[in-house]
Structures are given as structure tokens and as C-alpha cells.
Design a protein that fits this description.
By secondary structure, the protein is of the alpha/beta class. Helix 2 runs parallel beside helix 9 and helix 4 packs across helix 12. The relative contact order is 0.16. The structure holds thiamine diphosphate (TPP) and magnesium ion. Magnesium ion (MG) binds next to strand 5.
Length: 364
């Protein structure tokens, strides 16, 4: 998989692992096949629809002034559900700020994701309870945290792996490259899951790399693989295999999930200023949900009643999320000092006292 184009023979595996075409046709792959029961496929479809609905509701809440900002996952549902469902409870995931689908797989209540974007908390969930770290806005920094965690797993001799999410733009960060080196030389049990959504805000992929991102891995000494990031079956199969390799002492893998950010970078962004509409239209034909729906229909694995029931569940989820978002209490101003350090800290105490005195000045 890491050879140059010129050295790839006729029987070499295709550059992009795909198990389900955009038309909903199942295809075979020599290294990455997966057996899924009809029940499992229906369950993946449900996940995809529900996380898209959570995302849609969050965008609407931001537009109505109820969230400060939101980073949409639209178009990246399969990459996140496929990789998220590949994890075992013991595995640990480190997200960016866009991994709402992975959060769903880790049983994080979606209203807790909204708290951060509403500005009422600094994260909202206990990373240890879900084995899902807090969202990280500083691009690429979580890759170093994740490698450190993976090295801890290794030293505990635990049967678990770490997965870390980052974007195409993040691959240009020093932190990410340093984390590749550490993971490689220590043979850390980690999967680097890069969602190449083709854009880093307004910077296109060509500004990040002259070679496909997955091939970067060979320079660091571990395998890299590119998967169709809009194919939930392929993302599940490829991530499962990479996690198992990590758990069994075979070290890191870089997975490049080739996908597309169908929405704006965040709700503060206007992508019409830097990309053409035809690009989005082309990617709409590769929609991650439509192909699973087509597969279920064609193979008579689900009927209209099933699709209607998932839509109805999505409606209920959206309405419930909105209601609970609006009901989230604002924090007390002094609460901001409570979670800086685990132990009491003299400087924080001093700053809290100063701020309390300042607030007192507003009393009549
Ligand atoms: C260290 C750092 N530099 C710059 C930024 C500003 N910033 C926020 S998102 C972003 C682009 C990230 O692109 P990518 O890694 O492709 O992830 P995507 O948003 O596409 O999921 C940048 C530059 C930041 N948050 N952190
Ligand atoms: Mg990107």
C-alpha cells in the first residue's frame, strides 16, 4: 500500500479500500472484508441518520443564537460511525472538535457536546467514564496526548488500543509529526485516524501535501492505508484491523479516511467564498447514508416501515436535544476557577478572590 504509483503492479490492491459503492453495491476486498448481519447493517444506518440529525439540530440552534459556534460533521458520518463502532469499551479515543459521531458511539449524551459550544461548560463529560477524551481545539495537539496514553497502555500490558482523530490540515502540524515518530519508535498501540475532508478551513488539500496523506506513514516506519471515508463498511473493517494490530503488538497504523466536509468549516465560515458549488454536488452523489439505504433496499434487508421508524426516532431525538439544550443552566461566574487544577492552587485562589471582589462591585 505504501509503494509509489510506478511500482504498483496490476494485482496490487486498489489505492482506496471500498466495500460499498456510492450506488449501494457490495464489493469485495482481498484484505479488508467484513461479515455484517442485516441487523448490524440496520444498526449502522440508524447511527448514521441519528448523528446527522444531532448535527442538523446543532446547526439550527447556533443559527438561532443558542450556541456560540458549531463544527458540523455533515458528510463525515461514515468515517466516524465506522471507526467509532470498531472500538471496544477498553479502547481510548481522542477527538478533535468535530467527532460528534464518535461521541455517539462512545455513549456520550449529545446534549453534553452542546454545552461546550453554548459556553456553559469546558467539556461536559467525564473522559474516563466513556473512554472518550474531551474535544480539542488546538490543532493536532491531541495526537501527542494520545501517543502518551497508548504508551501507558503498553506499560500496563493492557489489551487495548488508542485511536486519535485529526484532519488533513493537522498533518502539517509539528505535533502530529512528532507523535508519528514517538508512536513508531516505541511501537505504541495507536491508530492515527485522519479524516481527509479535503479542506482546512479555506486551505485545500494541495496546500498540505504533494503526496496522498496515507503515504506519509511509510516515512515514519509504519503502515498507512486510504479508505473510502464515505463507506461505513470499509471504515469499520479497516479500523477494526488496525486496532487489532495495535492491541497485538504490531504498532501504529495511519488511516486516511477520504471524505468531504459538506458543510461550512464552522458556523462562522462561508465556504462559497473559496470553493465551487460543483465540488459539493459531486460529493453529494457519494453520500454516506444514501448508499447504505440503497444497499438495504436492494437486498430487501429493510422495508419502508424501518426507514420511517428511524426518521421518527431522529425527529424525537432532535426535539429532545433542543429542549434539553435550552434548559441547560448558565454556570456561576466563579465556577470557571473550579476545574483548572485537580488540587487547590494558591494562584487560582488569589485570582478567584480578585474576581469575586470585582463581581461584588456590581451589587447595589
Ligand atoms: C494550533 C492551531 N492553529 C490554528 C488553529 C485554527 N484552526 C482551527 S480549525 C483549523 C483547520 C483544521 O483543518 P483540518 O485539520 O483539516 O480539520 P477540519 O477542521 O477540516 O476537520 C485551523 C487552522 C487552531 N485551532 N490551532
Ligand atoms: Mg480538513
Amino acid at each position: 500500500m505504501n509503494e509509489d504509483d510506478a511500482s504498483r503492479g496490476a494485482d496490487a490492491p486498489p489505492e482506496l479500500v471500498q466495500l460499498l459503492t456510492p450506488e449501494g453495491e457490495r464489493v469485495e476486498h482481498p484484505d479488508y472484508d467484513i461479515e455484517l448481519t442485516p441487523e448490524e447493517v440496520r444498526s449502522l444506518y440508524r447511527d448514521l441518520v441519528l448523528v446527522r440529525r444531532i448535527d442538523l439540530e446543532a446547526v439550527a440552534l447556533q443559527r438561532q443564537g443558542e450556541l456560540g459556534i458549531w463544527a458540523s460533521l455533515l458528510g463525515q458520518e461514515a468515517a466516524q460511525i465506522g471507526s467509532g463502532r470498531a472500538l471496544t469499551d477498553a479502547d481510548m479515543a481522542f477527538p478533535t472538535y468535530r467527532e460528534h459521531g464518535v461521541a455517539w458511539c462512545r455513549d456520550v449524551d449529545p446534549v453534553k457536546l452542546l454545552g461546550l459550544f453554548r459556553g456553559v461548560n469546558h467539556g461536559g463529560w467525564d473522559p474516563k467514564e466513556h473512554n472518550f477524551h474531551l474535544y480539542t481545539i488546538v490543532i493536532g495537539s491531541q495526537t501527542l496526548h494520545a501517543v502518551g496514553y497508548a504508551m501507558g497502555i503498553q506499560r500496563d500490558d493492557a489489551s487495548a488500543a488508542t485511536i486519535v482523530y485529526f484532519g488533513d490540515g493537522a498533518t502539517s502540524q509539528g505535533d502530529v509529526n512528532e507523535s508519528f515518530i514517538w508512536a513508531s519508535v516505541f511501537n505504541a498501540p495507536i491508530v492515527f485516524f485522519c479524516q481527509n475532508n479535503q479542506w482546512a478551513i479555506s486551505e485545500p488539500l494541495e496546500k498540505q501535501s504533494r503526496i496522498p496523506l496515507y503515504r506519509r506513514a511509510s516515512g515514519f516506519g509504519f503502515p498507512g492505508i486510504r479508505v473510502d471515508g464515505n463507506d461505513v463498511f470499509a471504515c469499520l473493517a479497516v479500523t477494526k484491523k488496525a486496532l487489532e494490530a495495535a492491541r497485538t503488538g504490531q504498532g501504529p497504523t495511519l488511516i486516511e479516511a477520504f471524505t468531504y466536509r459538506m458543510g461550512a468549516h464552522t458556523t462562522t465560515d462561508d465556504p462559497t467564498r473559496y470553493r465551487v458549488a460543483s465540488e459539493l454536488e459531486a460529493w453529494k452523489l457519494k453520500d454516506p447514508i444514501e448508499r447504505v439505504k440503497a444497499y438495504l433496499f436492494k437486498n430487501e434487508l429493510a422495508d419502508q416501515e424501518f426507514f420511517d421508524s428511524v426518521d421518527a426516532e431522529a425527529d424525537r431525538l432532535g426535539a429532545d436535544l433542543r429542549r434539553r439544550c435550552l434548559a441547560m443552566p448558565d454556570p456561576e461566574p466563579l465556577d470557571i476557577f473550579d476545574h483548572v487544577y485537580r488540587e487547590p492552587h494558591a494562584l487560582i485562589d488569589q485570582e478567584r478572590a480578585q474576581f469575586a471582589a470585582y463581581l461584588e462591585g456590581f451589587r447595589d
